[in-house]
Amino acid sequence: MSEFIKELQSEYGYSDYDIAKVKYVLASIFSESSKLVLFGILFGVLGSFYPFLFSIVLLLFLRINIGGLHCKHYISCLLLTFIILYGSIIFFPNLLSVSPILIMFFSMICMIINYCIGPISSPFRPTPDSVLIQSCRNIGFFVIFTFIIFVSIFQKVNFLNVYFQVGFWTIVIHTIQLIIAKVLRKGGIY
After folding, report:
1. What is the pLDDT of residues 135-148, one digit of tens each?
2. Long-range contacts of the stretch 68-75 (C-beta < 8 A, 24+)
């Protein structure tokens, strides 16, 4: 790795600041990839690999655009992600099966909440400008709206019910952690 960094500095004229950014990106890619692999294996063993894929794709679109709670360390991020995924894939769907009409109703409420209070970016990143904020809100709105439309069209297709439940709980848990992040930020804690 140090040879790679020396080459970037000598051949391409990267500054120490540029090198720090490259290191950050590489560490982020490794961190996120390792979490995906670990959770993929875990939910595969639990027999919920495809619901995991559905939840993680939905969660990625929401987290990238709407944000929420961000952790300082790998282990705390791993635990928060586990809680969100386990809650949305295993715990809540087995605890309470929600009808399609309620899924659509509560998803609309979550969509409005996400639009109104998001995005909440990491305190370690620069504050986004108003154009980026509006774009992120629109994308988050579109993602949840697409889920609602999907549920409304295919609500009678029985094998999709597991994905409706997982998607719904992913949206609800994401919205709850977004509200927590907003409250903590308003209180100056986050």
Report:
1. 999 999 999 999 99
2. 68/118, 68/120, 68/174, 68/177, 68/178, 68/180, 68/181, 69/177, 69/178, 69/180, 69/181, 69/184, 69/190, 70/121, 70/122, 70/123, 70/124, 70/181, 72/124, 74/31
Its sign, for the CA torsion 69, 170, 40, 153, is: negative
Query: Residue 138 contacts by C-beta under 8 Å, 6 or more apart in sequence?
Result: none
Q: Is residue 120 over pLDDT 80?
A: yes
> 120: which strand partners?
67
Binning pLDDT at 50, 70 and 90, where does residue 190 land? low
Closest to 73 (Cα-Cα) out of 41, 38, 27: 27
8 A C-beta contact, residue 97 and residue 164: no
Does the pTM of the predicted model rise above 0.90?
Answer: no
Kindly report the number of other CB atoms within 10 A of residue 155's CB atom: 16
CA 113 to chain centre: 16
Cα 114 to Cα 111: distance, rounded to the nearest angstrom: 5
CA–CA gap between residue 129 and residue 120 (Å, rounded): 12
Q: For tokens 């500054």, what's the residue?
A: 15
- Which pLDDT score, from 0 to 100, does residue 127 have? 79
Q: Which pLDDT score is estimated for 8?
A: 65
Q: Length of the chain in residues, anyone?
A: 190
